[in-house]
Amino acid sequence: MEIYQIAGYKNSGKTAVTNQLIRYFSAEGFKVGSLKHHGHGGEPDMAERTDSYQHFESGSVVSGVQGEKLTQLTLRMPFGLEALIQLYGKFSLDLLLIEGYKQADYRKIVLIKNEADLSLLQELSNIIAVGTWDVKLVENRNYPIFDMNHLQDNISALADHIRRDFDG
Amino acid sequence: MEIYQIAGYKNSGKTAVTNQLIRYFSAEGFKVGSLKHHGHGGEPDMAERTDSYQHFESGSVVSGVQGEKLTQLTLRMPFGLEALIQLYGKFSLDLLLIEGYKQADYRKIVLIKNEADLSLLQELSNIIAVGTWDVKLVENRNYPIFDMNHLQDNISALADHIRRDFDG
Fold it and tell me: Residue B23: enclosing H or E segment and its boundaries?
């Protein structure tokens, strides 16, 4: 399972990039998993009034509901990122895209929205590409750069870059 | 991990019994997990418009969102009950309560709503207790019987029965 992170500050476009990459690699036949950290210290939204929500409310540490094609699990336990990734490892995925968790040490696409974000390029590890709304900000740096203003047009170039990276 | 099923036809009170047992055992300090099958061949309700739903819509086979205390995973892959139980096995649970899946072979509390349901007592395996709205229907059978009309009052007796069962 190849693991890549999409990192950047709030509103830098992480979800858009992650979704486009999921879409691209899924269409290419990859078995893609994704993980994101809920912002603001909150909790994932749950569909209330469902039976699984009732189980959860009653105290289940793990409450699951299986449908025809989908299974949904709600886990009420602390997980480190490593433990979660280990869990993802059970699902025979080709690729895991992680949105956020920018302090983790996996290969990263870092998103730079403005000058204030530039410090991320010093702070974060394992950067393999940079997405930016202002190409001038990051040119002359030693990263492949992708223009976020034309994400749709550039997503296949970014995906190809990731693919070359994990193909070695 | 001890595994018990709550089995019965639709509207026989499975969710009520399951919730009460989750509540009871959780309050007793057990680490309880639960699993139910979504009826009608449908899918678990998902909170739409969330980012994790977007990941899922984009094609993620496993899409997860981690909050402060909760992690929610949506799995788009076929699971047999055994494979799901194996997954639950990773979470160090004391007790797994399974609502439905009545053809499976785990120890069962079977719910009998009316005479038409009585055939379940022949068809299902590993019955350890029967809950019923009409005690006359099932008396003289060789099972501990719990009156569903007074579920709240009887839940600790049912839970004790389960506990004695798994204590040997």
Answer: helix B14-27
Of B105 and B52, which is predicted with more confidence? B105
**Which residues, including other chains, have CB under 8 Å from residue B139's CB and lie 6 or more apart?**
B145
Q: Dump strand ranges (E) for chain B.
A: 2-8, 32-37, 62-66, 71-75, 95-99, 107-112, 127-132, 145-147
Confidence check: pLDDT of B73 > 80: yes
**Which residue in B has a C-alpha nearest to residue A54's C-alpha?**
B19
**Residue from A72, A90, A97, A155 to probe the interface with B (highest B Cβ count within 10 Å):** A72
The CATH number of A2-40+78-167 is which of 1.25.40.10, 3.40.50.11600, 3.20.20.70, 3.40.50.300?
Answer: 3.40.50.300
CA pair distance A119, A110, nearest whole angstrom: 11
CB–CB contact A59 B27 (8 Å):
yes
Tens-place pLDDT, residues B77-131: 989 999 999 999 999 999 999 999 999 999 999 999 999 999 999 999 999 999 9
Instruction: Tell me B116's DSSP state.
Output: G
Residue contact B67–A23, C-beta within 8 A: no
CB A129 within 8 A of CB A145: yes
**In which band, very low, low, confident or very high, does the pLDDT at B142 lie, cut at 50, 70 and 90?**
confident
pTM: 0.91
Neighbours of A87 (CB within 10 A): 20
Helix (H) or strand (E) holding A96: strand A95-99
Its CATH class, for the domain covering B2-44+78-166, is: alpha beta
Confidence of residue B40 (pLDDT cuts 50, 70, 90): low
